[in-house]
Design goal:
Rossmann fold, 18 strands, three-stranded antiparallel β-sheet, alpha/beta, 15-stranded mixed β-sheet, about 35% helix, Molybdenum Cofactor Biosythetic Enzyme, Chain A, 15 helices, single chain
């Protein structure tokens, strides 16, 4: 099988976000957890290899991305896409810049773009500055992120700190003129010695134009938004049919539950909305640090409640509470304790009959899918922008209904996401 588009995502929910965009644009897409070890389903047009590399050491992130690239090239992918968060989550050391340059070197390409814009979720780039809703990235809740605090909205400056090559800018006034003008700006930047270019985008029309201008680039680096414009390139080349049904999923069954580890403002609001009307259990990281059996207590608590409808297990908290915990037990230990506990709880819930599970937060989602032993997901219909339902690939024809999973980036989804997502399941 020869794939059209091969994608590398730096976390699990981000991978699902990208895969959902491709499905919505008519590409049959699967997401694999790590480098695939088995053949993909027949008829796959695009694959997203989801890594857990956003916050690891840059050298390790580069090694993992290059391993994924080797598999994608062996599978015959015609274009490579490196996907990161729409809030450009990284530190001055990386990992967006180092991974991008390593992929460029391996593909022997002198130029690529960087564009985290996702206007449907309020992420826009203007004059090289990233906005979250109506505020600059540096004034948003991301400035308090425990692992990748984003305190500078100037993406040219942020990326330039992480790379050796020169970073340029394609301003929105050029993007608004369409594919040809964008391509001409790419050529001018290359002639000026730029290796990477931040690209402005404030609307879906901008994303479509950017995608079209990237048709001949061996590598695209972006959030999920630019993926909106790539499938049409393959259609124009006669490689992708117009009438594909890309979002069909098998029917699922079982109890319903939400496991939330993200501390983003969006997830905090979603947790509060669900706590107001549904049973909820809070995982206390300090209790975990004291050695208390919080996992066992959560599963006992879930008990008979599972049959009464969706329930919530969460560790989400506001920035002040997170900082207080980190001060007492350390940021790395706190994160690890919570991820491990939530993964064990999710596994216990599935063993108790949960067949439809929402997981909020990239790090939490990575821990959960690893604990569940899931190595791949079939991507279905979108719940909210950037968040589709999926089913685990492990199920075979004639087997019990597969596990339905919604892996939600902490920043995504409407306030009532946890309450209404179930309506989109078949």
């Amino acid at each position: 099988m020869s794939l059209l588009l091969g994608c590398i995502a730096d976390d699990f929910t981000g991978g699902t976000d990208l895969a959902g965009m491709l499905v919505n644009a008519g590409m049959r897409t699967v997401q694999m957890i790590g480098v695939p070890r088995r053949p993909l389903p027949e008829g796959t047009d695009a694959v997203v290899i989801a890594l857990k590399s956003r916050t690891i050491a840059p050298e390790a992130a580069v090694a993992e991305a290059l391993a994924a690239l080797r598999w994608l090239r062996a599978a015959g992918c015609r274009q490579i896409y490196f996907k990161y968060c729409s809030t450009f989550d990284s530190t001055p050391q990386g990992n967006i810049g180092p991974v991008s340059e390593a992929l460029m070197a391996a593909l022997d390409t002198p130029f690529s773009i960087a564009c985290p814009a996702f206007p449907a979720n309020g992420r826009t780039v203007y004059k090289g500055h990233l906005f979250v809703g109506d505020v600059l990235l540096s004034e948003s809740g991301m400035r308090h992120h425990p692992l990748t605090p984003m305190t500078d909205a100037n993406l040219v400056r942020v990326l330039q700190q992480q790379v050796k090559g020169k970073v340029g800018l394609v301003e929105q006034s050029i993007v608004a003129r369409g594919e040809k003008a964008i391509g001409e700006r790419f050529a001018a930047l290359r002639a000026d010695g730029c290796r990477l270019a931040i690209v402005d985008a404030i609307s879906d029309a901008d994303l479509l134009a950017i995608g079209a201008a990237c048709a001949d680039l061996p590598l695209v680096t972006a959030g999920s938004g630019v993926a909106l414009g790539l499938p049409q390139n393959f259609r124009r080349a006669g490689l992708l049919a117009e009438d594909l049904v890309a979002d069909a999923l098998p029917a699922t069954d079982g109890y319903r539950a939400v496991v939330a580890g993200s501390c983003s403002l969006a997830t905090q609001a979603q947790v509060a909305a669900m706590c107001a009307v549904r049973p909820a259990f809070r995982v206390d990281p300090l209790a975990l640090a004291r050695g208390e059996d919080v996992t066992g207590a959560a599963l006992i608590w879930a008990g008979d409640r599972l049959s009464d409808g969706p329930l919530l297990v969460y560790a989400s908290a506001d920035a002040e509470s997170v900082a207080a915990v980190q001060q007492q037990i350390g940021a790395e230990r706190a994160g690890s304790l919570v991820e491990d506990a939530l993964a064990l709880i999710a596994d216990g819930l599935v063993k108790r009959g949960v067949g439809q599970l929402i997981v909020a937060g990239g790090e939490t989602a990575g821990a959960v899918v690893k604990k569940l032993g899931i190595d791949g997901l079939r991507i279905g219909a979108q719940i909210d922008p950037g968040v589709p339902w999926t089913t685990a690939l492990a199920a075979t024809s004639g087997a019990a209904p597969p596990l339905a999973l919604a892996l939600k980036s902490g920043n995504f989804g409407s306030v009532d996401f946890f309450l209404n997502a179930w309506d989109k399941l078949t």
